[in-house]
Amino acid sequence: MRQRTRTTSRHAFLAVVIAMTALVNSAHAELLIRITEGADSAVPIAVVPFSESGTMPAGDKVSRIVQDDLTMSGEFRPLPPEKMLSLPSRREDVYFRDWRMLGQRYVLVGELKRSADRVSARYELFDVNRQERILGETASASVNSLRTLGHHISDKVYEAITGVKGAFSTRLAYITRDTFKGKPRYRLQVSDVDGKRARIRLESQEPILSPAWSPDGKKLAYVSFETGKPVIFVHELATGKRTKVADFPGLNSAPAWSDDGRSLLMTLSKDGNAEIYRMDLASGKLTKLTDHWAIDTEAVYDHTGQGIFFTSDRSGGPQIYHMDSLNAEPRRITFGSRYNARPRPDNEGRFVYYVHQRNSAFHIARTNLKTGEETILTRTSSDESPSISPNGRMLIYATKQGDNSVLTVISADGGAAYSLPASEGDVREPAWGPIVN
Amino acid sequence: MNLSTQTKAFALLLSVGLFAGCSTTGETMDEGGAGTGSDVSAIDQEGGSTVYGGGDEGGVSSSGLTDEEKQAAEEQAKQAALREITTFYFDFDTSEIKPEAREVLVAHAKYLASHPQQDVRLEGHADERGTKEYNLALGERRANAVKRFLIVNGASRGQIETVSYGEEKPAVMGSNESAWAQNRRVELVFK
Distance between CA atoms of A236 and A253, rounded to whole angstroms? Predict the structure, then answer.
């Protein structure tokens, strides 16, 4: 018997509001982060402000970036620095008894040194109960990339404690929509996962949707209506070079990369009906993967890289299907309601996440692929476009706040974490980029 | 097989007749004597169903022709008025053409049939609910449903182009049933 449960938030609700201020006449659209509420049952950690030698650039401190990253994950509750009894930067100054008294499980200390145009960080992470160092490292970055350095340290701390790779150095792609001089303005943007360092990659008066990261994080495939109809482009981020890869009659949509980055799954209706194809990017050769009178779309590879999940309304309404290989018989995965669409599997073959209609509301839900158990993860009600972090721990999706679309990040088991509204207009279609070494 | 074809043809004739009958202004047509010029025209205006009233020769007089001309002008005006409507609405997650849209779409199809140089673009849309890519396919299916209807009713394939915008171009902003209902649509854009 199939069970459905509504996950009550395991972590106390944690809201981080990020407002976007679009800078006029600039290619940048900076996002500001405001923490409004802390988490209750998350792991307590003290991120001690790093000592500094040499002149550091203005802006966020590295240790502050680490503190914010760990807070955003929903899995940690960093101690506010003003509550700390001392501010050690080396092991010999760490008094475990003090930190235990403050209820801390972990302490991170470090020091920053500037030499010429680089900053190096020497940092150590301690387990307070065991009074042991569990991580020690030196890392450096250009003086203009202190955020990169901060996210790197966050990744290492997260992995040392949880055993799972951190995803704080990864990037988000998303689409913003606002109105400029009376006309709609769509922008494809790429930012850090905390919304900072956003850069506009494409601007159009016509819709842009379905950004999808190549496995190496260097390219985005997306659908743009700039020619008056949906066409798939591949965009090289470093050079800005764009290639039109699919411009057939009808739909050219829902691109998704293969693991080797050499082919794309896509939805084409050139033969009259929406079907899923695989396109070899070098040759442009197409292989038709579905052949049904129904709508087949939103295909994505599963964790093996061999099979695919996709949406089909062959049963009368949209449902999630899986094929073990590209020529296997589709098997229906979702049964819990009459509308389940846009599958996004994790990297381990445990869950598939999707948009799920319950009564009149649209939520993000997931199905356990072993047991078939379906869990509704969100309490918001106009949810779209789920995208899983590459470490499988977080989920970003688009939802409505008032009349506007905002991005919300939750832990993959449903705890609410933070949202990313735009100051004006909509932000939607988030795509979480891969971990790139 | 022959029989079956004949049966089908007869059934079709019958249904066309019934359709025409249903659509007249309510005057009885079965009685041969009732056939005045205006009656014939009334049947004529339901395009494709002229056969039914064809037995009546009473309309062939000079005054009858004038009447017919008048009727034709009225008919032309009525068709033009019908064609003012260029947006057609759908229920959630369906691409079924609603009964009330049929008469208008027939008028558009007839116009396209009589103006072979005229092209039309069918723009399919969905409301904001559900997923963007599925809605893109749904918008296309709606546009294709209208395209098939126009072709069946006389337009030719080459005159019609379809594009789906999915949920990207709502006619009305807002997240309520009234806005959604106005956004699930196909728009005919004559070029």
Answer: 18
Domain count, chain A: 2
ipTM: 0.87
Stated as kind and residue range, the H or E segment containing A104 is none
B118 shares a domain with B41: no
Coil, strand, or helix at residue A90?
Answer: coil
The DSSP secondary-structure symbol of A205 reads S
Contact criterion met (CB below 8 Å) for A256 and A246: no
Residues 6 or more apart whose CB falls under 8 angstroms from that of B176 comprise: none
Residue type, A436: V
d(CA A157, CA A48): 13
Alpha helices in A355-425 (DSSP H): none
First to last CA, chain B: 46
Q: Does B137 touch chain A (CB under 8 A)?
A: yes
Would you say A416 and A399 are in contact if contact means Cβ atoms under 8 Å apart?
Answer: no
A residues 267-326 lying closer than 8 A (beta carbon) to B = 267, 269, 272, 274, 295, 297-298, 311, 313, 317-318
Size of interface A-B (CB pairs under 8 A): 85
Backbone angles phi, psi at B3, to 5 degrees: -60, -45
Alpha carbon distance A63, A51 (integer Å) = 9
Q: What is the pLDDT along chain B (191 residues), one digit of tens a residue?
A: 444 444 444 343 333 333 333 333 333 333 333 333 333 333 333 332 222 333 344 444 455 568 888 888 998 899 999 999 999 999 999 999 999 999 999 999 999 999 999 999 999 999 999 999 999 999 999 999 999 999 999 999 999 999 999 999 999 988 899 999 999 999 999 98
Q: Which residue of B has its CA nearest to A273?
A: B141
Q: How far apart are CA A36 and CA A204, in angstroms?
A: 34
Buried b (16+ CB within 10 A) or exposed e, B107-125: bbbbbbbeeeeeebebbbb
Residues B90 and B172 in one domain: yes
Cβ atoms of residues B153 and B147 within 8 Å? no
CA distances (Å), origin A168, targets A15, A61, A192: 18, 16, 8
**Residue A26: inside a domain, yes or no?**
no
Which of A254, A269, A403 lies nearest to residue B140, judging by beta carbons?
A: A269
Identity of residue A61: K
Residues B112 and B155 both lie in one domain: yes
Residue A292 and residue A299 in contact, taking contact as beta carbons nearer than 8 Å: no
CATH code of the domain in which A141 resides = 3.40.50.10070
